Task: structure prediction
Amino acid sequence: MEPYDPNEIWRRIEDILRPGGEYIGKPGGRGGRAKHVWKIPINEYEPESLFRELTEGGVELDGSEYPGVLVDLPGLGAVGLRPPTGTKPYTMDVSIDGIRIDKWKFVEPEEY
Result:
């Protein structure tokens, strides 16, 4: 197992969420939150696969009150994935310094 390197993980996260310098998806929030909530088409990004890529090397936080899977990335922050509930889609919460988007909602193509 390779040692945990926050700088390497940061670069990987940035490559995944901001390839070529542009965030994946497009703004999808309402009101003042619009710039922090983005939506991405579920047919282009599979939520659980993207989440696994982003959190590789992190530590799952068991026993938290987060309504999904929450992974700590030591020295960077945390990433969580909430399953769809009712009319709410899969939502990935990202709390990492330098990533200005807080949430990505995985929506059907017609909602994109």
Observations:
- The mean pLDDT is 92.
- The longest strand covers residues 77-82.
- The two ends are 39 Å apart (CA to CA).
- Helices lie at 6-17, 47-55.
